[in-house]
Amino acid sequence: MSALGTTAPETGSDAPTTTSPPTTADGVALWEIAAASRVLDVNSRYAYVLWCRDFAATSIVARIGERVVGFVTGYVRPERPDTLFVWQVAVHEVARGRRVAATMLDDLVARVGTPFLETTVTDDNAASLAMFAGLAERTGADMERTELFGPAELGAEHDPEFLYRIGPMQLTPTPTRG
To answer: Residues 25, 135, 109, CA angle at the centre, nearest 5°?
Structure first.
């Protein structure tokens, strides 16, 4: 695992990938990456800028050079201060296949230091399910699944969101890089 803010070589590129907490200046890039993903529920530009201001300590961005190429947004649950909730994870297409999402998750888990992580994933999102299962494996944690929100909360047009609870995690995950 890279230490937060350190660099790692990119596959097929000389430019390093770095991770750091987001700044408000990164908010528009987060919004653009979310919209380009075509799978995330996209919020307003304002919401992403505000998120970068108020939840920078529990979120992370990945950069290649100065360009934001990925993000993880999260927060510590007020009623469960031992739990980091990961809200969205996205990687721009230019950085896919380079383990950017896994690196961001590992760096964020190490920085925040909570023993548990929660997230919601729909059943059709195999990539996210594999990414979070990989995190559980790297951190020596269990992963439990329960339905959190179904049609009653989200409407018939939205697939049910299943809650994945990972933990307790070792705070130093096994490296994601080979």
So the answer is: 45
